[in-house]
Every structure is written in structure tokens, then in C-alpha cells.
Recover the amino acids of this structure.
């Protein structure tokens, strides 16, 4: 029997030269079509680390519910939409139960029609565009607080601080970088005013034109809002501050990275929304300790914990469905409520696939992470999702 | 339609169709990832065959063809996107696009035609450029179109993913398009423009002086290849269902050109071989990237291996087989040499070159050519009559070849007029002059080295196409080969012949132009006495039977003296003597300038 199984494994491995697809009765196979190279790798990389920590933790206890082991098949999609489409089709061929997609709505959209046809639930690891699950169909889920929800939180905070005028810096080249437009909606709904907008390119390093425009505004805007991240954000904030603009800068989850905290005076005082904060005694603090124990390093981005959250959601869904059947899993996911993740309680019930999660407001204070607050978003302030 | 025999033609197109069909059936039967990989393979092969139509035949590597792929994909995606989706995704589309939705096949046709139209305009510019200038221009094209697609946000969503494209492409559609592309590229290679374009790839200067204008041929190939690549883009878009401009940029250009280069750029066979090799390498490496378990040992995940793998394959092939794995010949050409009865032209009395009736002399009146600081030819007048052999002699550097170049319009004269009847040769390009009946050979032999002897000669005979049909052109090139006694070498590769034979091929090629005047630049160089004698007999025949006027440059003075009716002597760019051979031999100025010195040096 053992020899037979072994020879079978060898045959399969030699025939397909691919990850063995030999499935045991009690296992859940997750297909991971994530970006391990390219511009999204700095997000998907940490997420996948968190995913592995969670899977190891669960499998060490004998699997989900002590019986269903988790397996993964990993494909690199190079941060590219077309490659995502190809990788996801291959994962469908491999009969996976769940598919993970890259950390951005654009490549994730490429998989929408495929997972919908195949009836396999799919999660973008950390895309925050609310349009993704909305337009991606019943089988598309997200794993992050939506751009519109983050904007509602940061917009409300800005208004409460007395800020009334906002300047928006956004890039129409991806869904996520248009987040400031949601922020503008929130500010205007509250009675504030958007006094200017500028766009940039995703590979842009020189922001002198934009900074000059902002510098010329009189009086200066109270708030400058941007969803720019690396490499745009560090370049922008340095040039902005060295030009002498002192307006409050508000960002979003994309700058929750070590770089932001290492920019010295330039990023000092920047406030941004993100998915969690390790307050003493919190789940996130526990996760960070686990991460340190597993890897020997400190977790320096919330995206590690986001990966851990995702597996917790899958675990909860498998337990609820008592099955690894993709369709049953999807239905179970759509009914999940208050799943305890590392960053937040996570709820999919009653949403179109964009989870309800806590949003944390964080300030850069002396190069350290300072929690500004974890306010519940005001439902009336959350703008309607739309393609920007 | 092509310069192939019907039997050969049938084999050359039936084989790829059959292979693709079998491939598709097997892939469909296995299904799953094999079927999907096969679809991607068919699409890649379509692109490679498409690029090969231009790059392979013209010899100009194109980095720009993926821009046609992108235009095809986007055009077809916009046309087929459901109206509801358009309102959400592309709210700013102009009304006639926003409110219409075409089915897949009409959209495919419309998009392909659209791309070909675009290609015509771009091709008008690019076909004027040669060699690396053209290659760099195609690179610029790739960058510009990429920029336009990102900028045209209202039509394309900019650099964001275009999604929701109906996923229509299955293995049959991909296979059909691929087979179509292979057949089109195979037919084009041996069509009249294809053969002419290949001759220009081998030697642009002598292609022009054999009546190939090059620009038109390049344009035709460019537009056809753009259409094929656009088709590939269209089925790719409808296979993926979602794509962004990045899919049609450097990374994929690199991967697809790797197929073209590894397989061999100049043949359809090479496209197939290259696509198979690179696809196998990438598929295997891509799967290995995710980590693999062999004999119970788990190998780690290593991402980014595929690019390195392709690079290594290219390096290996370039070292071992610089012309690509498939070399320079099609599979059917190799087959026909080995298994089919070689089709040597039948020796027939019917195949005759026409006897010239035209009486107009070729007159050059005081022509000059000045290079910077040098008067290569300075005010030389020369005239040649039909049926006359004129010798042109002079020491090295006296301007003989420059004079020949001007007379054949290969280089323009700085001043002076060259006329043949009512035609002013000095204001023409060399391909126009060739079509009017000015033929020439070159001092340093300019054959189309990788083409067969027959194809070399046929290119010149086809300068009269389409006024004469291909069969007539064949008959004339057969006759021209017979004149020079090389008909039994017709199927050999011209570049592999002996020196003397290559000279004969060059003269046969010139004869196939049916020239009124034929200029020979050192035709006897490198020949032994026996070969020289038989060449002289042939030239005498040409003059007396075909009534062609000959102008011969040679250092073989006995040959010149025996063959020529008149001799013109150049020295330092000026004509120092002219007259009958006997008089020239005794002319003291000539003896002083040329013969005397030569004798002293010789003795």
C-alpha cells in the first residue's frame, strides 16, 4: 500500500512536473494566485507569510476542526492581470476549493468571470476597492476594509479636527489610488470643501509640479489626502515638506509599511487608515508575538496579520459548512459573522462580499506608530462604491 | 499564386493545418490545463508566425508588433463588451461605440481590418527605414502605442484592467486562427512580394538593381503581419477575458521574440519550433516556481525562473545555431530536396529570352561624381549602342565602378545627364532603371546568398510581374540559367557555389531582367583561363543573339581587347582615351598611365 502510494506520487510528479495534486479525503486545497514578483509583491509577500503562519498553526493541531488539513498550490501572477487569468484557470483545473487573488482589484478582476463560471469562492488578499466584490459576482470576496469605509473614517476624523478644506492627490491608473475621491465625497457631505485635485502616474518620482500647485494655493488647504504608496508616497511627502507645505497629510493603508516610519521629519504627523493596531492585549499583539516566534523578526506591517485573518475566515467557513465543497463554502462565507481575526472581528453577512472590519487611524509620531482611534464608521457617511 | 509547384504548395500548407488540427483534437481530448496551455500556445504561435511574416522576410527585427496585438485586443474588447458593462466601465465612450455590441466574429473582422488600416499608415513611415533604424522605429512604436492606450482612458480604462470581455476563445477558434496564420505566413514567404522581400533581406542594393523597389514589399508584409498579430491579440483578449496594457509590452515582446529567434526568424517552421521550445521551457519552469515534490523531497518556491530560463535558451541557441533551430529552410523545402523528385527546370527550346528590337542608345553626357574632397568621376561622357560591347579600363581608383554605379542609377550623379531614349536614367532609382532595362553585376558579387540559384534569377524575372505571370517569369529565368550554363545548379543555395559559378548566376540574374544594357563589373575576376574563355563565348552570344549592349569593366586586358568593339580608358576620374582596342593598346597616354606602369609592376 505504501509503495503503491509512493510510486503513484512519483508518477504524478514526473508526469506533470507540478505540485502533486494527490488529494487526501480530508483536506482543503487553497489555490494561491498571488503576486510574488512585480509592484504588488510588497503587499502579497507579507500577506502570504501570514497565511503560512496560520496554516501551520492549524495543521499542527490536526487541521481545521482537527481533521481537515490545509494544502496550498502557489502560482506567481507577476502583478499582472493576464497572468492572473491564466493562473486562476490552472487552479480551477487543479480542483482547488478556494482561490486567493492578488492584493489589487485590477488583477483580481481578471479572475472574476473564471471563478464565477467555476463556482469557486475567491478572495483578493488585500484589495480594498468596494467595487471588486460588487462587480466581481457572487464568488468574489475581499479581505480588507473598503476604500469608501476608510474614507468615511478618515474624513470624519479630519472634519472633527476642524479641517474644512481638502486637496486630493490621486492616480487614475488603479482603482485603489482613486480612494481620495471617496474622501472628497465624505468631506463635502460633512460640509467641507475640496479646493483642488491633482493626478500622478504610478511610477512617478518627481512631484515638483504637484507640490508647486499646492504651494501656490492661498490659503493653504487644511488637509492633503492621498492614497499614494511606494514609491510615490515617500517622494511626494519629502518634496511637499521641503517646499514648506505644512497642511495635515492623510493617507490610507498602502503606506502602512516600515518605509513610512523611517522617513524622519518628512512623514512626521501623517495620519492614515489601516486594518488594525496592536493595542495591548489585542489579538494583533498576540499575532505579532506568534510571528516573532515563527520567523525571528518583528512583524513590520499589518499585511502579515491580514494573511492570518484570511485563513481564519476560511477556517470558520469550513467549520460552518462542514464541507470543503466550493459552493457550500461560498454560501458559508456569505453568512459569516464576527470571525475573530488578528486585526479585527470580520463579518461578511449582509454585505456584497466587502467585509465589515474595524478601521484604525494611525499617526506617525517620532517615527513610531501611534493609535489615533478605532472609530466605528458612520454608515450614512460611507459613499456608494463606484468604478472611478 | 506562389512560386512553388502545386504539389509542393499543397504539402507546405496542408501539413501545418493537419498538425494543428491533430494537436487541437488531442489537447481537447485530454482537456484541463493541457487544453488551456494549448490555447495559449496557439495564440503565441500566431503572433510569432505573424511577426515572422515581416521580420523573417525583411530581415528587420520588429519590437513593435505587440502594439498591433494590443490594438486588436482592445478594439475587439470594446466592440464586444455588453452595453451594460460599458456604461459602468467606460461611461465616456462615444455614443456609436457605447450603445453598440457586436458578436465575436464580426468584431474580430472589424478589429483586424482596423488594425491593418492603422498599420498601413505606420508602415508608410517605417518601410522607408533600413536595418537597425527600422528596428529602433518599431521599438518607438511599441512605446508610443503603449502610451496612447494608457492615455486613452475613456476607451481603455488606462493602465487599469479591462475586464468583462466575453470569453469566446476555445481550442477550436485558437487552432483555426493559428492554422490560418501559419498558412498565410507560409504562402507569403513564397509569394512574389515575399520572394522579393527575402531578396532585399539578403542584399538590399542588388535587390534594388534587380527591380525590387523594397518599400512596397515591406509595406505589404508589414500590414499582413500586423493583421495576423492583431488576430492573435483578439483571441487572446477573448480567452483571458481581462487584460491590461502591460500584457502587450516589453515582457511579452521579449518572450515572443525569444520564440522567433530560437526557432529561426525566416521560416514558418522556425516559428513552430521556437514556440514549442519556449512554451515547454516556460511551462515547466513556471510550474516548478511554485515548488515541487519529487521523490518525497519538497523543493522550495523560486519565483522569476522563467525569464532566466528563456534567456539561457536564447544564449544556447545563438551559440550553437545562430540562424535558429530550424535554420533557413522550411520543413517542406527540406522534404522536397530529400524525398520529392528534385524539380530541375526542363531544358526546353521554348524557353527563350526575347531578342531586343529597341535601337535607343544609352548616352551619358559629361557626368561627374564628387565625394567630399574627391572627384571620383569628373565630366566623363560615354555612349553604348544595342548589340555593342564597350570595355572600360583604367588603374585601380580611376572611377570605373563609380561610373558604373551612376549608369545603373545605384548612386546618383553629382552632375550630368544619362539618357536612354526618352528616359532620363540619372533621375531614377536603381529599381526603376532595372525595370527599364539596365542590368548589372557587382565587382564583389552580390547574390541573395541563402536563396537558391533559381530564386535568385527568378527575382529579376519577376520584375515584370504582374505584366507577365509567374509561369512566364519561370520560363524566362530557366532560359537565363541555360544561357549561362547553370541550369543543373538551379536548386542549390547560391551562397554555396564556387566563385566562378556565382559570377555566372549573377549574370544569369541580370539577363532575367531582359535588359537592354548590361554592365559587368570584373566578370572574369577569380576565373581560370578555361572559365574565362567560356564566359567570353557566352557574352559574345548574348551580344549577337539578344542584341544587348554590354559595358565591361575588367583588369583582364586580353579579354577586353578580344571582346570589345570599343574601349574607354579612365584615369583619375577622367576619360584619357577612347577608340578601337588596337588603337588603345598603342596610345602612348594609355601606355603611360596604365599599361606601361602595369607592365613594369608585372615584370
Amino acid at each position: 500500500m505504501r509503495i503503491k502510494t509512493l510510486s503513484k506520487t512519483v508518477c504524478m510528479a514526473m508526469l506533470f512536473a507540478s505540485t502533486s495534486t494527490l488529494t487526501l479525503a480530508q483536506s482543503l486545497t487553497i489555490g494561491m494566485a498571488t503576486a510574488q514578483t512585480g509592484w504588488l509583491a510588497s503587499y502579497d509577500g507579507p500577506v502570504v507569510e501570514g497565511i503560512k503562519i496560520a496554516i501551520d498553526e492549524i495543521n499542527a493541531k490536526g487541521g481545521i476542526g482537527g481533521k481537515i488539513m490545509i494544502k496550498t498550490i502557489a502560482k506567481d501572477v507577476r502583478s499582472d492581470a493576464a497572468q492572473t487569468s491564466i493562473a486562476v484557470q490552472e487552479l480551477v483545473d487543479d480542483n482547488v476549493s478556494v482561490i486567493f487573488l492578488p492584493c489589487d482589484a485590477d488583477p483580481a478582476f481578471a479572475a472574476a468571470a473564471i471563478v464565477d463560471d467555476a463556482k469557486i469562492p475567491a478572495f483578493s488578499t488585500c484589495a480594498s476597492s468596494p467595487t471588486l466584490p460588487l462587480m466581481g459576482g457572487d464568488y468574489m470576496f475581499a479581505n480588507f476594509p473598503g476604500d469608501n469605509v476608510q474614507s468615511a473614517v478618515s474624513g470624519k476624523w479630519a472634519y472633527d479636527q476642524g479641517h474644512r478644506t481638502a486637496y486630493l492627490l490621486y492616480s487614475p491608473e488603479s482603482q485603489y489610488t482613486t480612494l481620495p475621491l471617496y474622501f472628497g465625497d465624505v468631506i463635502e457631505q460633512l460640509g467641507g470643501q475640496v479646493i483642488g485635485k491633482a493626478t500622478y502616474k504610478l511610477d512617478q518620482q518627481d512631484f515638483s509640479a504637484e507640490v508647486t500647485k499646492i504651494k501656490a494655493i492661498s490659503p493653504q488647504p487644511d488637509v492633503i489626502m492621498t492614497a499614494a504608496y511606494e514609491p510615490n508616497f515617500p517622494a511626494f511627502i519629502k518634496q511637499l515638506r521641503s517646499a514648506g507645505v505644512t497642511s495635515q497629510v492623510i493617507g490610507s493603508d498602502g503606506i502602512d509599511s516600515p518605509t513610512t516610519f523611517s522617513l524622519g521629519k518628512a512623514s512626521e504627523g501623517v495620519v492614515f487608515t489601516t486594518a488594525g493596531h496592536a493595542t495591548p492585549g489585542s489579538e494583533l499583539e498576540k499575532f505579532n508575538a506568534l510571528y516573532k516566534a515563527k520567523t525571528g523578526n518583528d512583524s513590520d506591517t499589518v499585511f502579515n496579520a491580514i494573511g492570518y485573518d484570511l485563513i481564519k475566515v476560511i477556517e470558520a467557513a469550513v467549520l460552518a459548512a462542514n464541507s470543503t465543497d466550493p459552493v457550500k463554502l461560498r454560501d458559508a462565507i456569505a453568512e459569516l459573522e464576527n470571525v475573530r481575526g488578528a486585526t479585527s472581528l470580520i463579518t461578511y453577512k449582509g454585505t456584497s462580499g466587502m467585509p465589515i472590519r474595524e478601521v484604525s487611524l494611525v499617526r506617525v509620531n517620532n517615527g513610531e506608530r501611534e493609535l489615533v482611534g478605532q472609530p466605528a464608521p458612520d454608515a450614512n457617511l460611507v459613499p456608494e462604491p463606484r468604478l472611478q | 499564386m506562389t512560386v512553388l509547384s502545386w504539389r509542393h504548395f499543397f504539402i507546405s500548407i496542408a501539413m501545418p493545418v493537419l498538425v494543428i488540427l491533430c494537436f487541437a483534437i488531442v489537447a481537447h481530448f485530454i482537456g484541463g490545463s493541457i487544453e488551456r496551455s494549448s490555447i495559449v500556445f496557439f495564440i503565441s504561435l500566431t503572433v510569432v508566425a505573424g511577426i515572422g511574416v515581416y521580420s523573417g522576410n525583411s530581415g528587420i527585427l520588429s519590437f513593435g508588433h505587440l502594439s498591433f496585438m494590443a490594438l486588436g485586443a482592445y478594439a475587439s474588447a470594446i466592440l464586444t463588451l455588453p452595453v451594460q458593462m460599458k456604461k459602468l466601465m467606460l461611461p465616456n465612450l462615444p455614443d456609436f461605440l457605447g450603445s453598440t455590441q457586436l458578436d465575436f466574429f464580426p468584431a474580430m473582422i472589424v478589429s483586424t481590418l482596423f488594425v491593418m488600416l492603422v498599420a498601413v499608415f505606420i508602415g508608410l513611415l517605417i518601410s522607408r527605414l533600413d536595418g537597425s533604424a527600422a528596428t529602433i522605429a518599431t521599438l518607438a512604436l511599441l512605446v508610443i502605442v503603449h502610451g496612447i492606450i494608457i492615455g486613452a482612458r475613456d476607451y481603455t480604462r488606462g493602465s487599469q484592467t479591462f475586464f468583462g470581455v466575453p470569453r469566446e476563445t476555445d481550442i477550436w477558434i485558437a487552432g483555426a486562427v493559428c492554422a490560418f496564420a501559419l498558412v498565410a505566413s507560409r504562402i507569403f514567404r513564397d509569394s512574389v512580394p515575399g520572394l522579393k522581400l527575402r531578396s532585399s533581406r539578403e542584399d538590399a542594393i542588388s535587390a534594388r538593381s534587380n527591380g525590387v523597389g523594397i518599400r512596397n514589399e515591406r509595406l505589404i508584409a508589414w500590414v499582413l503581419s500586423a493583421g495576423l498579430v492583431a488576430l492573435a491579440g483578439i483571441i487572446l483578449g477573448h480567452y483571458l477575458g481581462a487584460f491590461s496594457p502591460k500584457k502587450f509590452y516589453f515582457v511579452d515582446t521579449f518572450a515572443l521574440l525569444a520564440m522567433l529567434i530560437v526557432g529561426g526568424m525566416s521560416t514558418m517552421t522556425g516559428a513552430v519550433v521556437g514556440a514549442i521550445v519556449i512554451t515547454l521551457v516556460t511551462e515547466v519552469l513556471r510550474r516548478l516556481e511554485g515548488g515541487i515534490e519529487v521523490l518525497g523531497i519538497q523543493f522550495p518556491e523560486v519565483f522569476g525562473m522563467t525569464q532566466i530560463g528563456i534567456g539561457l535558451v536564447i544564449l544556447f541557441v545563438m551559440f550553437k545555431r545562430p540562424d535558429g533551430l530550424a535554420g533557413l529552410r522550411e520543413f517542406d523545402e527540406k522534404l522536397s530536396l530529400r524525398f520529392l523528385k528534385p524539380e530541375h527546370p526542363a531544358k526546353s527550346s521554348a524557353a527563350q529570352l526575347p531578342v531586343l528590337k529597341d535601337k535607343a542608345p544609352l548616352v551619358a553626357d559629361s557626368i561627374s561624381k564628387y565625394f567630399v574632397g574627391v572627384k571620383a568621376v569628373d565630366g566623363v561622357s560615354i555612349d553604348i549602342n544595342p548589340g555593342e560591347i564597350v570595355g572600360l579600363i583604367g588603374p585601380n581608383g580611376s572611377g570605373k565602378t563609380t561610373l558604373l554605379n551612376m549608369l545603373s542609377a545605384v548612386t546618383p550623379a553629382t552632375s550630368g545627364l544619362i539618357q536612354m531614349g526618352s528616359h532620363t536614367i540619372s533621375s531614377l532609382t536603381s529599381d526603376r532603371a532595372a525595370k527599364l532595362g539596365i542590368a548589372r553585376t557587382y565587382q564583389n558579387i552580390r547574390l541573395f546568398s541563402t536563396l537558391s540559384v533559381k530564386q535568385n534569377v527568378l527575382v529579376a524575372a519577376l520584375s515584370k510581374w504582374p505584366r507577365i505571370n509567374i509561369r512566364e517569369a519561370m520560363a524566362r529565368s530557366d532560359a537565363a540559367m541555360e544561357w549561362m550554363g547553370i541550369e543543373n545548379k538551379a536548386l542549390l543555395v547560391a551562397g554555396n557555389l564556387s566563385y566562378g559559378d556565382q559570377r555566372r548566376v549573377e549574370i544569369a540574374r541580370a539577363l532575367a531582367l531582359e535588359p537592354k544594357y548590361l554592365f559587368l563589373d570584373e566578370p572574369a575576376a577569380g576565373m581560370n583561363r578555361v572559365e574565362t574563355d567560356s564566359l567570353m563565348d557566352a557574352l559574345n552570344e548574348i551580344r549577337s543573339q539578344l542584341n544587348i549592349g554590354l559595358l565591361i569593366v575588367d583588369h583582364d586586358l586580353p579579354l577586353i581587347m578580344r571582346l570589345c568593339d570599343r574601349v574607354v580608358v579612365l584615369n583619375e576620374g577622367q576619360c584619357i582615351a577612347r577608340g578601337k582596342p588596337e588603337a588603345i593598346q598603342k596610345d602612348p597616354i594609355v601606355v603611360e598611365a596604365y599599361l606601361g606602369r602595369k607592365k613594369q609592376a608585372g615584370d
Remarks:
- Chain A is about 40% helix and 15% strand.
